[in-house]
């Protein structure tokens, strides 16, 4: 079950809202836990026992770290047990097949590679639990005294599937006293509907074109066709993932919880450094606080700093998937960030903003080619096609047909990739006069109707980050 499905919108969500609203305050976490487990079981019931066992172990380790606050050796031991068990689960489900496959290739020993199905949400759940264990170990936060509250935190359905990565310190004060109010319902549902519109009306539309071109099903290739394909994927992954984050943040707000923002209009960036301050913010912050800074960050020699950057970005890429293209994608950004920091940034600051913006977007789009194709041969073909090195025409009738049919949605996607429209929605920005209440209500009503009409008539509704 995904947020943008009829079963979620018309069955699961209304029933959960009603149960939560009617439940007394002391039972609201219980309603959230049951609702979260039902939501999760709908798509992946096999992982629930593992998730519950991990939650018990993480909770006990947290309590033991708190009890041994003055004993560094014991505190470290319980932290390592919690972190190690979560990493083990992540590696087993996500990387076992990949590691065995590469071992077989390197050694020449042939054996059957087991196909282990990746449970949805395991990457986000693991990182969330690891952050809790390390924060309690460091004393950044106290351990959760109630297992009931900890279970509510670790199973929160709005973010368990595809983030944002919610740290315990972000919601610890809300866990005891969250409730649905008129304001929280209004703010949360408006944010949810915006995310739904981004996902259903933009991401799904351009995603269909992106897949057709990437898979070679869009007809005779041309340079223009390849650029249309990567443009479509550039918009798809942004509106898909940021749309999901908006829906998650909005649902949490309905239930009186506040999540950190995960996106801040990354395509308006004027450098790769800025792009990564705006894209998947909670993941970047996680790697910064739990990997990069413990390795020494930038307060080390230049050589060690370069190593730190490459190591962290290789891990960031590998976190996205068990495939070499994700490692390449991470290293690609590691190199770009190194070049900007040590060579390019003074020059970038001197050139006009428009050219900085073009520079950033082109590099991001090349990055999405690496990200998309696990088949390195196909990746090379697409790069050659985009750069005009594949002995194909610059354009043809088919590419002009797609440009004509998708031109409007591209223009709309480009516009909604900027913060210009958002400031007119009165929950986001108070620097301009917001839309009148009636116009706001009409906008969200039409947005919801358009989404439902599209969902009823379309079968293409994947969430890209579910596979991570």
Strand content: under 5%
Q: How would you sum up the major sheet?
A: none
Structural class: mainly alpha
Q: How many extended strands? A: 0
Name the helix and strand elements from N-terminus to C-terminus, one letter apiece: HHHHHHHHHHHHHHHHHH
Distance between the termini: 16 Å
Q: Total helix count? A: 18
The radius of gyration over CA amounts to 23 Å
Please, could you describe this protein's structure?
With 468 residues, the protein is an all-alpha fold. It is built from 18 helices and no strands. Helix 9 (182-214) crosses helix 18 and helix 13 packs across helix 14. The longest helix is centred in the N-terminal third of the chain and has 36 residues, at 72-107. It is globular. The chain starts with 5 loop residues before the first helix and ends in an 11-residue tail after the last helix. The mean pLDDT is 89.
Keywords, please?
mainly alpha, 468 residues
Topology:
Elements (H helix, E strand, L loop, with lengths): L5 H17 L5 H17 L3 H20 L4 H36 L14 H17 L8 H8 L2 H4 L7 H4 L10 H33 L8 H32 L17 H7 L2 H12 L9 H19 L3 H25 L4 H20 L3 H11 L10 H20 L20 H21 L11
Short structural summary:
By secondary structure, the protein is mainly alpha-helical. The chain has helices at 6-22, 28-44, 48-67, 72-107, 122-138, 147-154, 157-160, 168-171, 182-214, 223-254, 272-278, 281-292, 302-320, 324-348, 353-372, 376-386, 397-416, 437-457.
